[in-house]
Amino acid sequence: MSYKNVLIAVDLTEESDQVLAKAKHVAESDGAKLALVHVVKPIEHVYGGFGAVGLAGDFSAQMATLEQQAVSHAQEQLAKMGESIGVAADRRFVPVGSASREIHRIAKEEGIDLIVIGSHGRHGLGLLLGSTANGVLHGATCDVLAVRVALKD
Amino acid sequence: MSYKNVLIAVDLTEESDQVLAKAKHVAESDGAKLALVHVVKPIEHVYGGFGAVGLAGDFSAQMATLEQQAVSHAQEQLAKMGESIGVAADRRFVPVGSASREIHRIAKEEGIDLIVIGSHGRHGLGLLLGSTANGVLHGATCDVLAVRVALKD
């Protein structure tokens, strides 16, 4: 009945610390391994399909660079988080794509038995994780712990 | 960071045992107290507003009796569950009403810090808990653990 392999999905807001702390507590109780994931939205999902409307090549390249920067930034943040709570480098994931789909994919590939995500209480599950949190819950083939975080504002 | 007061929401299907076992494990790890809740749907929500269309008094009374029987049945089931995992009689709740609203109310009144509910994987969160599970997650002022249960069929 104990958890052996815990995946923490973070949105990289300040509130991620609260999710990490809770996940670490649960994992320590059970002696579970930890993994970290942050999913980067494809740039065309953030700013619409620029490519499709025939933008100049330069602009298109800048968009791709932005996405790559988001990935690099997330990798740095996950490295810091991973070091603070003991997640090996090869257990930190920064995929680009649909958050729920990528989280489910990694959960399956890594044999995860508990996904831990943040929730913002009355605002629903997450602002950034937001609409994807439902997807994570509904499609999950393992347990999901929604950690209620206090918003810092 | 540990849980002190865990509320287990059960739908009284066979799969409830899996939710109980997981909740018990988490509670034992943290030395938490347990509570149990099963929310009975008001009979008029199940079969439409019979009262409103001017049914004979006898039929209306039979409906009320059905609801009361559902409550009694749930109380018996919760008593069995409670005895098996050590939930005191005054910590077993069978309210009639909206599942998410009643679960949130009890969670607040009892100072709950973790709600544990069942999820049926690709069918989404529960069949009976079903659409209410989203409500439980979204409105919760505490953490929510969705336990993925294996369907027996």
CATH level 1 class label of chain A: Alpha Beta
Largest interface, chains and sizes: A-B, 28 and 28 residues
Strand order, biggest sheet of chain A? 3-2-1-4-5
Helix content of chain A: 40-55%
Give the quaternary arrangement of the chains: homodimer
- Corresponding CATH architecture of chain A: 3-Layer(aba) Sandwich
Total separate domains of chain A: 1
Could you describe the 3D structure shown?
2 copies of one chain form a homodimer. Chain A is α/β, with parallel strands linked by helices and 153 residues long. Chain A has a single domain, classed as Rossmann fold. Chain A has 5 helices and 5 strands; from the N terminus they run βαβααβαβαβ. In chain A, strand 4, helix 5 and strand 5 form a beta-alpha-beta unit. In chain A, helix 4 packs parallel to helix 5. Chain A is globular and about 55 Å long. Chain A starts with a strand and ends in a 5-residue tail after the last strand. At the A-B interface, helix 1, helix 5 and strand 5 of A face helix 1, helix 5 and strand 5 of B. Strand 5 of chain A pairs antiparallel with strand 5 of chain B, so a sheet runs across the interface.
Short key terms for the protein model shown above:
alpha/beta; 46% helix; 153 residues; Rossmann fold; globular; homodimer
Give a quick rundown of the structure.
With 153 residues, chain A is of the alpha/beta class. Chain A has helices spanning 16-30, 43-47, 57-85, 99-109, 130-139, and strands at residues 5-9, 33-37, 92-93, 114-119, 143-148. Strand 5 (143-148) of chain A pairs antiparallel with strand 5 of chain B, so a sheet runs across the interface.
